[in-house]
Amino acid sequence: MATGAFQVVAEIEPATKPDLTRVRHQVGVLAPVADAFLIPDNHLGRATVSSVAVAHEVESMGARAIACLNSRDRNQLGFRRDLLTAAAYGVDRFLCVFGDQPVSGGRSTDLNVQRMIEEIRTFGASEVFSERGPFSVGVTTRLTPVPAWKRAADFLFVQASFDLDRLLGWRGSLRFDGPVFAGVLVVASTDMAKTLADATTQIDPPEDLLRRLRTDRDAGVDMACSLMREIRSSGAFDGVHLVPVGRYRTVAARLERDGWRRRI
Fold it and tell me: What residue ranges define each of the domains in the chain, with the CATH number in brackets?
């Protein structure tokens, strides 16, 4: 089912202050094993440095970037501004998402993810961008049937899961022509696992992992790296969307030790 070389797309922790030092460090550490980097957008409902600007910075370091754009904070005019800014910076890959619940304030109701894709396909393909692009756009999906409008995207990011059999069963039922990336999340601690449980019923860390985390700080790293190997060996996916959180140094070292190398 995979369409090409297996890729690792590593999600970085975004900058919540006007300083990209930590962003650059994450990219530098993960660059030997990551083929591209996903830049979150106002992650967890907090204000962060523009994902488009950070994607440009990552590209300037010689790495490939995907800028996440959420519908929560944008109206149509603001979204068109972002597309123009991205084109001016040479950023041409986006992941469009609904967006986490904001810490304060409300949501914009002018756009949803479907309309963002339509804007990219229409305004983003207009003669205004005749010397740029084309843009490539992806969406996220749960392990449920994917609606037709999402199947019109260029690539899919699949919600993080710890159940390989369920993940492979879902992939076997999907008809999609573009790359599909399985989500792999590093659960860094029991506190993080509790936060996940409180926030969503869609991501359920196994009891064995929770038990191991009480005595082994690297248990979440071990499980994530093992799952990555199993997903790659299955041949069912084009890559993984890796979320290493604050454990990116340990994850990078473990993947390098296991022979992972950047492919593209």
Answer: 7-257 (3.20.20.220)
What count of other Cβ atoms lies within 10 Å of the Cβ of residue 137? 23
Cα-Cα-Cα-Cα dihedral of 103, 106, 109, 111, to 10°? -30
Q: What is the mean pLDDT of residues 58-73?
A: 94
First to last CA, the chain: 19
pLDDT tens figures, 182-232 = 999 999 998 888 887 776 667 788 889 999 999 999 999 999 999 999 999
Query: Residue 114: which of 81, 66, 65, 147 has the closest Cα?
Result: 147
Phi, psi (degrees; rounded to nearest 5) at 68: -80, 135
Question: pLDDT tens across 86-95, in order?
Answer: 999 999 999 9
CA–CA gap between residue 193 and residue 210 (Å, rounded): 7
Indicate the length of the chain as a whole number: 264
| Cis before 134? omega within 30 | yes
Q: Rounded distance, CA 88 to CA 23, Å?
A: 21
Helices (H) and strands (E) in the chain, counts: 10, 8
Give the residue carrying structure tokens 């299955």.
234
Task: For tokens 């460090």, name the residue.
Answer: 25
pLDDT at 32: 96
CA 130, 37, 185, 196 torsion-angle sign? negative
Q: What's the CA angle centered on 38, arms 33 and 218, to 5 degrees?
A: 55
Query: Residue 135: pLDDT above 70?
Result: yes
Q: Supply the pTM of this predicted model.
A: 0.92
| DSSP at 35 | S
φ, ψ of residue 216 in degrees (nearest 5): -130, 105
